[in-house]
């Protein structure tokens, strides 16, 4: 019998796409659906999904939890846990439309919530860490419940099916987001599970990814030491946690983070600090073929593995930045970009909102690593 | 070109002499044949002195005393600088033996001629070098 | 530059090689007085013994001469005109030179006694001599060799090989007087007798009659062929006539230059320094002739840069399987020596303090190379080491200091070798 | 003592058709097995033969063969010929049985029960001939909060030459390995016998050992090194010390070890200043201070039953590099009973220790190096995938230098010039050739490792480290799979 995500490691090939308006102007989901639909053959109908940023401006200060339930009992269990730990401003089903090619959908709800003060005080965690741990608890310990996304003012919409059908199912044309990413999946040994579709998210992070990471076990065992439990056994999860560890916890900037996950060759590293980073975080080097788009509320970054074994194309038109697995996927929505290029291995394409400097606007850099004078 | 012998790595096993003998006189390195059917006459000799053992071999000197002292012009230098004996001409006067500072040229008494290293010039890498088990012999320019 | 060499033997060949090591273009002319091409005199005994096998006595091949651009002219020089730098040949031809080398060698000494001109009295020095001997010898006849030097012994050997009854007569007290010591001569004498060569010492030839040779002691010996091997004398007449400085041989400086700056001399015709005794003497030896020729050639072609330090006496001869090697000289009459003897092998070394000055090796040629070189290079080796060596004279037992010196001179780096 | 009732272990067969009486075998056998008398009569003393193969290898006519002595005992599964012979030997000598090299018994070899993965269509394999393939690895404390200050060893290939002391092996072994290590961009280990003055230039490429005997340890020795290794235990003889017999303590050895010549060199079983883990912490700190915190400090322990707890303690005591030596690890001399019955396989120890250190969150404070019976590049790959940072080899290196595994190292009569200090035998190992052979071996392994990594779709060694998904176990019980942390084939 085939096992689901979380029970077995599932490699998959994929299509990815991302669009950002750097001025933060929202636009409907139609564009990203057209984009990903154009790469229909890169998926096999076993998974599709989107991440949208800026869709809940009215609840911007709340963690927006998109949660999938197998059944009513799971929802009850989960809500009991949530109400114990969070103040919930609003809870409602995510609106969907019936779609002939999308079947076996779980019960899909969203919750706008904030950790309870007393819980934070009791655990002595900051609210991000508290929420992240809560998400991991739900995924690991509450049967039949799965948190699809958990960031502020953003959401993940994913399921089993071709991405364009999933987009229609979730009525994405009704949402206005300044940043969309999309994923079409070609897994090779899963029956297809809604929770296992991509994007993979944690808090504000969302990741879409194409490829199979050969270093998976080395990466996940490294992350284990930093208390990440890779329950889904997918590459995307590992990538997300790597970004989370490096940027949120260790507070490295984008360039430093990229120099870890797509490290330059030893022979090309001149900077002692980057050498040191590679020595320490060698376990996080993502080896093997991949192209990924990592997004937060601040923008997106797209990057290839260091020897560019997977496709990635980027284009710019005015305030819009497009990235996708194929050039045609960009041309279909923007026939005449100002600039279009194929980034090299390990060379990131960065699209941040005009007023942001980092993917995560957080406290100063990690200074536990000595910097050269 | 010449073979240099390194006392510090010479084991004294004597394989150089054995292969030297087998390489010449048409035996093409067939050790068994020359020892069972032929008369093994090696050119270079393994010496055992205070400082250890080493193969006493020809330096193919630039001003080779053996060439200059040869009464019949039998000792010659080939275009590669290899000093060899022309057995058509050697009469076995042993002047070369008397003149070789290395004591390398030796009498071949049964033929009334002399034996000396010709660097296996017909067969490539000198047999002693090729068969030294410890790299104690090296061919140098 | 035009080089002319009078004489076409070993020194001439050395000179060609010496000249060509510097001057690849200049013309070289060899005046071959014997008109037999460039051949090696020591080979004549082998020619006599086995005329078929040793027909070709060439010291260097025709291709070799051609390759070195040497023009061999048949003819002998009768006069050197130093002022015009010209050589006059026997047929009146005149050859001009820029540099001249006199390498006229020597000729057999013939005593002035009665009957010496008889047709069966021969010398043994040139191809012509061999041909003359060959034409008269008959197996089973009696051959008398007068003189037991190198030439006499080789003549004896070849005649013996041709089946004649051979006796060697020496006027000194033992055979090979300039090479052997009385002790070693005794041994060699026995070996020679075993090999079928009779010897007689202390006899001086006084007259030669029909089928009979008479000696000072009254001894009379029957004889069919008599070979004179009583030594040689250098061909110095040409140099004397030209007014060059001459003693017993032509006098040259350390650059082999005669008293005329354009004329050099080398080989058996010159006087050389014996580096053991320090005296100037005639050292008619093939290896020295070659070396002198070579150095003269280098000095003729270039600046006078290669000094000749002199030579040592050295001889190696094989007589009917008996190998005799000797080198060096005795600086004093009474010189300390060590002897080793086993079966038919014999080694005698003479020590002058910590220096080896002479050795005599009979049937032991293997160790003679390093011994010769020890003498020539004046390598100091302590007496106790010699004593050790003489307990079993093999190359392995040769004093280590000698090998170390050779090794040091070679000085290779293992890593830089192949 | 009466007549020895033990028959020879080996039989030397001489093909008389082929023997040419050249005497090479006579001259080459330090055990005097071969004799050629003045009549040209060749005779052999089988009982002296140790099957080192020197004579057979050098015989120019291949006239020699050595076989196990064919005299059979009556078949008995319990009283094997070996066990009977051991009793004969002890009854004759009254002594402890000694042996060289590692545990030769038939215990399960876990390396041989692990298979390596390769990429197929879902991801591409990488061609090492066309794409860069990084083998560089760093050893040392990589704790992310302190790395800036902690010294590291840079290895261009995740392989080092393991500790073999001068005295137990010849100076030419040290020279060969020192030159090879330098050329390969890795390190060699002096072992506990100090550093020979000829090799001072190679000190910077050496991991110098401090063992219970403290042989040759002085400030310059520590300074002139790449790293310092404290040897607590050795895989071949856990729990016991060492004994270099006086006859191997030549003038040179005495100089390097700083002990009188021709006297026995005894390494005590424990370090007499380490009677508990905190004493080790003090020694580590002492060595760090002595080397001005410029060099990583390694601690080498034998793989034994409670290795995880020991490893955890050693890491927490401040070791920058933890070396675990398995029971296949070689030695110059070990009591046979210890060698054959004490210790555990290094594969198991490694898997357990790696997991334990990760569970404790201290894996990054130390680099894990394993040693003991690594035979080929696949073993190296498997070790790294199980969690090792690098691997030490010694026996494999000696075999590359000519060792024929006769296991008689303790006699000092090594015919291959390896485990000896006799000058005439030592010269049989030409360090120029030795280093070339060691370099060739590791270069070959490196190529193979690159191919295997490329097959896995990995182009940097750090992505293989602890990547146990790249392994599958074959012929292992569920329990063994669990202990190794790998899945079974087909899973």
TrEMBL record, chain A:
Q: Which GO terms describe its molecular function?
A: transferase activity
What is the active site of this protein?
A: 14
According to the entry, every stretch annotated as the Glutamine amidotransferase type-2 domain falls at 14-373
Q: Which SUPFAM superfamilies match?
A: N-terminal nucleophile aminohydrolases (Ntn hydrolases) (SSF56235)
State whether keyword Transferase applies.
yes
**What are the entry keywords?**
Glutamine amidotransferase, Transferase
Q: What's the protein name?
A: Glutamate synthase large subunit domain 1 stand-alone protein
Lineage of the species this protein comes from: Bacteria, Bacillati, Bacillota, Clostridia, Eubacteriales
TrEMBL record, chain B:
One Pfam family here: Fer4_11
Signal peptide feature range: none
- The keyword Metal-binding is annotated on this UniProt entry: yes
Outline the extent of the 4Fe-4S ferredoxin-type domain: 81-110
Would the keyword Iron-sulfur turn up in this protein's UniProt record? yes
Q: What's in the keyword line of the UniProt record?
A: 4Fe-4S, Iron, Iron-sulfur, Metal-binding
Q: Name one GO molecular function term.
A: 4 iron, 4 sulfur cluster binding
The protein's name: 4Fe-4S ferredoxin-type, iron-sulphur binding domain
UniProtKB/TrEMBL annotation, chain C:
**Where does the record place the FAD/NAD(P)-binding domain?**
2-293
Keyword Flavoprotein recorded:
yes
Q: Which InterPro entries match?
A: FAD-bd_OxRdtase, FAD/NAD-bd_sf, FAD/NAD-binding_dom
Q: Which domain of life, per UniProt?
A: Bacteria
Query: What Gene3D superfamilies does this protein map onto?
Result: FAD/NAD(P)-binding domain
Keywords assigned: FAD, Flavoprotein
Q: Does the keyword Flavoprotein apply?
A: yes
Q: Which cofactor does it need?
A: FAD
What is this protein's name? FAD-dependent pyridine nucleotide-disulphide oxidoreductase
Which species is this record about? Syntrophomonas zehnderi OL-4
One GO molecular function term of this record is: oxidoreductase activity
Q: Which Pfam families match?
A: Pyr_redox_2
TrEMBL record, chain D:
| Single biological process term from Gene Ontology | glutamate biosynthetic process
GO MF: 4 iron, 4 sulfur cluster binding; glutamate synthase (NADPH) activity; metal ion binding
Enzyme kind, highest EC tier: oxidoreductase
CDD domains, per the entry: GltS_FMN
Q: Which reaction does it catalyse?
A: 2 L-glutamate + NADP(+) = L-glutamine + 2-oxoglutarate + NADPH + H(+)
In Swiss-Prot or TrEMBL terms, this protein is called glutamate synthase (NADPH)
| Annotated ranges, domain 4Fe-4S ferredoxin-type | 10-39, 40-69
Known EC number? 1.4.1.13
Source organism per entry reads: Syntrophomonas zehnderi OL-4
Under InterPro entries, the record lists:
4Fe4S_Fe-S-bd, 4Fe4S_Fe_S_CS, Aldolase_TIM, GltB, GltB_archl_type, Glu_synthdom
Q: Give the highest taxon in the source lineage.
A: Bacteria
Q: Which family does it belong to?
A: Belongs to the glutamate synthase family.
